Amino acid sequence: MMKRFTLTFAAVLIVLSALNAQVQNPVKWNYTASKKSDKEYIVTISATLEPNWHIYSMNTPTGGPVPTTVTFKRNPLVTIDGKTTEDGRPKTVHDEIFGIDVKYYGETVSFVQTVKLKSPVKTNLSGTVKYMVCNDKMCLPPKTVPFNIQLQ
């Protein structure tokens, strides 16, 4: 009885290890805030992708793959100034699966947002990035990652 339990337990551990090894996360995120003035910051949310993977533009047309979206949580001390912009080398291709032209980024892309403080105080800016990545063989399900950036 104990031998069967030990063998079953070992088999479960092997399966869990194999499943864990298959989890892919080809995007590494970095979050920074650079002070432009005592009340203004440039927030940069950067993605670095593993080779052969790409992430979709925030401006992906309806009916296409999931666009990247940056959402900021409300902070009464911070005002979001304008729209988030993309900084990278986009590629535009006609995607046969979706039947539309899509824009995506490989290697790196940054999402840049200007924010203003209502008064010169230390605070945090938090939110989420929702994105989808693909390579030439597959797409991973959309993923949402939280961020928290200090504004000092």
TrEMBL record:
This is Thiol:disulfide interchange protein DsbD. The lineage of its organism: Bacteria, Pseudomonadati, Bacteroidota, Chitinophagia, Chitinophagales. Pfam families: DsbD_N. The keyword Signal applies. The keyword Nucleotide-binding does not apply. InterPro entries: DsbDN, DsbDN_sf. Keywords: Signal. Residues 33-145 form the Thiol:disulfide interchange protein DsbD N-terminal domain. It comes from the Bacteria.
